[in-house]
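Researcher: Re-running this chain for the archive, since the previous output was lost when a drive failed. Same request as before.
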Amino acid sequence: MEKKRRKGRTKAVTEDVHSKYEKILRASIKVFAQNGFHRSKISQIAKEAGIADGTIYLYFKNKDDILIKIFEDRLEKNLAELKSKLEKIEDPYEQLKFFISHHLALFDTNRGLIEVLTVELRMSNKFMKEYVPQRFGEYLNLLSGIIRRGKDKGIFRPDVMPGVAKRVIYGALDGILVYLILAPKPKYDLNTCVDQITSIMVSGLLKK
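Model: Regenerated structure tokens:
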């Protein structure tokens, strides 16, 4: 009986820790998106999360650490979802189109998060100089995997280098998201951007 009680208490503590961790991440996304990374304060994040300032330091070293954890956590979740859905698509062309669509659709579902990950992330010197991009590398490797499969099936050009192509495609996606965030009145809607990027990229990849 005592063993069950201890197990129950441990589970409750674990859930509470996860809950506070997630609260801090969500609050940070909102505060960073509203105020900008450099103008945001730990006290503002704590207030938004409904916790004491000191509690944040139990989970994160500083503001830069929070920003990096937002990037890692959200990218990891996005990776899991993308892998699961891409496995159900056989055609490399359709896989590429889905990857592009999925990436840009995040702007519609969580603009604040995308603003933090595309604009505010660059404001952190620690991230730009010290972060080891393991998760980001995995994300880009999904793209290079799609391109390799397209080459193996004789759909994409044999001379295309997956390592270069994945960065070109991601760069285009990143550029469009920055445009959608910063433009007061974007000329193009999300669906148009998806179609255009897919068309431009695939026309360059297709074997003639």
